Amino acid sequence: MKIAVAGLGYVGLANAVLLSQNHRVTAVDINADRVAALNSRKSPIEDAGAQEWLATRPLQIDATTEAEAVYRAADLVVVATPTDYDSVTNRFDTSTVEAVLTQVHRLNPAALVLIRSTIPVGFVERMRAEMEWDNIVFAPEFLREGQALHDSLHPSRIVVGDRNDRGSRIADLLLEGAVRRDAPVVLTGPTEAEAIKLFANTYLAMRVAFFNELDSYAEIRGLETCDILKGVSLDPRIGEGYNNPSFGYGGYCLPKDTKQLLANYDKVPQNLIEAVVESNRTRKDFVAEQIVALNPRVVGIHRLVMKAGSDNFRHSSVQGVMKRIKAKGIECIVYEPTLEGPEFYRSRVVNDLEAFKAEADVIVANRMSPDLNDVVHKVYTRDISGCD
User: Active-site residues: which are they?
Assistant: First the structure.
């Protein structure tokens, strides 16, 4: 089968590598550097598993910035382009997905399009009706940044928004190259599949928010957060995952997916979903207030990345904390080795670690690092277990 993958972010790259074990895959991206990296068998994003597979496995994969010829020849087009949240419309910006759909429909209407980008509830049915084209299927991904290929190879479940034989074939395709072949398969309608993605991520966000509020309580009351966490999480109905306090949930998925789900509720009664979104704002307010109360002259922000093993700092929670600190007139400096340039949003970048540690009065670290062990007396963190 000839497969085109639109988008070389962490979802697109993981899908391209997974499928290229058994099929001819060409990835399409507007970023020439990402294309060149993949053609040199280097991962264009931070993903240790993808880097290893590209370097050592006989994959049938290449990349290009020229989409038309690839789409014309494809039997299947996998769409993994970004759908950022638009704060003006209070909806996902699905323009990149719609652009691929339009282009494939014009060039190769016989091709099947599999959307793996996160989309609003009702998107597939709307696009099928507007385009008078039924060859659009949605299969949500459940991948972690930095470990996207690993999660593709060891899926927790496969969900496909198509209840007929076509849905089964897509599920088989996604399992064909997986290490875990016995993952549960859920075939459902397209709208239910869209809802599964948003509700799953909102539940994870709710869990992060819950334990962050537990930590806020403990910090104010002078209690040991770790003792409370252990006693609560040993209940098997609760469990120990996603319970390490942070500055708030962040990254590419959880902030936008919770807001999109809230927007999808529209006239449906709810309290909890809105509270999850608001709780994340409150946590960043609280963390910033605790730091400001230390009366620092210079606050050092140690790493902007959303979590360990990732090079993505879009919407990382520490940026929200940093913004609030700067609003109080306090200077912030940034240590982030993945950044190039002398400034980040008008804050100086100091990537000489020793100089950074010397200049900062307080060092803010969403996750503790051994690099900071010698200045632990300066560090403000709520990290207890070192886990994301």
Answer: 253
Which two tokens mark 109?
A: 């209407």
**Secondary structure element (H or E) that encloses residue 87, with its range:** none
Integer Cα distance of 195 and 200 in angstroms = 8
Helix (H) or strand (E) holding 352: none
Q: Could you please report the per-residue DSSP string of 176-197?
A: HT-S-----EEE--HHHHHHHH
Give the sign of the dihedral formed by CA 74, CA 78, CA 84, CA 90. Answer: positive
Cα separation of 239 and 384, whole Å? 16
CA distance 227 to 340: 41
Within the chain, residue ranges assigned H as helices are: 10-19, 32-39, 48-56, 67-73, 95-107, 123-131, 148-153, 165-176, 190-221, 225-233, 254-265, 272-292, 317-327, 353-359
Alpha-carbon dihedral angle through residues 355, 361, 362, 365, given to the nearest 10 degrees = 0
Residue 267 CB coordination number (10 Å) = 4
Matching residue, tokens 């949605």 = 138
At residue 336, what is the residue type?
Answer: E
pLDDT in tens, 178-192: 999 999 999 999 999
Say if strands 343-344 and 347-349 run parallel, antiparallel, or are unpaired. Answer: antiparallel
Q: Is 237 exposed, middle or buried (0-12, 13-18, 19+ CB in 10 A)?
A: exposed
Bin 146: left if φ > 0, else alpha if -120 < ψ < 50, else beta.
Answer: left
3-class state of residue 301 by DSSP: strand
Determine the Cα–Cα distance for residues 8 and 193; give it in Å rounded to an integer.
23
Residue 154: count other Cβ atoms within 10 Å of its Cβ: 12
**Hey, what are 125's tokens?**
């049915």
Select from 191, 200, 193 the least CA-distant residue to 127.
191
pLDDT, one tens digit per residue, over 311-329 is: 556 678 899 999 999 999 9
Can you give the pTM of this predicted structure? 0.88
